[in-house]
């Protein structure tokens, strides 16, 4: 029985990572920043997996999502460490939204509490991803900062232009999904 549970877990992770990649690919058609970054729907499956399986599910789904973006997506890679930061690490840390896994599971019958926890979890995942992108931007994209502007300030602003809308969109959609189909994050 234990083997079947592990296999089911890995199948769920693979399916959600693939869905995240496809949603991100579709999102990139409408809005793509010049040095990388999009307002993406791809984080939603990572959040759903984190709410369903906790930290392990969220972190692994985010990591595989990052691998897919580099392997078969259209990545903006300028240096191996920049690729590590902007793809592997940035999307893995989105899975830390799973730290609220138990609270979200327990709040499924309480609409207001569930909405609050989903928004908080989406904020945690998006904020951690944002911090990683800011670090990568400050290190690898300093030449794009206007003269006299601190590189970190430029990176904070640049990455906020797509991360804030991504946070808003992903939080709203996750709330709508779990309000209408809470069984997506419950296991039997």
UniProtKB/TrEMBL annotation:
Keywords: Membrane, Transmembrane, Transmembrane helix
Pfam families cross-referenced by the UniProt entry: Thia_YuaJ (PF09515)
Gene3D superfamilies found in the cross-reference section: 1.10.1760.20
Transmembrane helix among keywords: yes
Transmembrane segments: 7-27, 33-51, 58-78, 84-102, 114-142, 162-181
Statement: the UniProt record of this protein carries the keyword Transmembrane: yes
NCBIfam families: ECF_ThiT_YuaJ (TIGR02357)
Protein's recorded name: Thiamine transporter
Source species taxonomy: Bacteria, Bacillati, Bacillota, Bacilli, Bacillales
């Amino acid at each position: 029985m234990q083997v079947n549970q592990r296999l089911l877990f890995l199948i769920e992770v693979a399916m959600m990572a693939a869905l995240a990649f496809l949603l991100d690919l579709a999102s990139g058609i409408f809005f793509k920043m010049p040095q990388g970054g999009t307002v993406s729907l791809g984080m939603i499956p990572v959040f759903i997996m984190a709410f369903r399986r906790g930290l392990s599910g969220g972190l692994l789904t985010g990591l595989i999502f990052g691998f897919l973006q580099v392997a078969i997506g259209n990545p903006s890679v300028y240096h191996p460490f920049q690729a590590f930061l902007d793809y592997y690490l940035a999307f893995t840390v989105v899975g830390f939204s799973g730290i609220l896994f138990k609270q979200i599971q327990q709040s499924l019958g309480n609409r207001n509490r569930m909405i609050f926890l989903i928004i908080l979890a989406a904020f945690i995942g998006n904020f951690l991803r944002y911090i990683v992108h800011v670090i990568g931007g400050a290190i690898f994209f300093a030449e794009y900062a206007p003269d006299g502007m601190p590189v970190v300030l430029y990176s904070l602003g640049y990455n906020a232009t797509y991360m804030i809308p991504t946070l808003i969109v992903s939080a709203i959609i996750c709330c709508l999904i779990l309000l209408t189909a809470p069984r997506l994050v419950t296991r039997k």
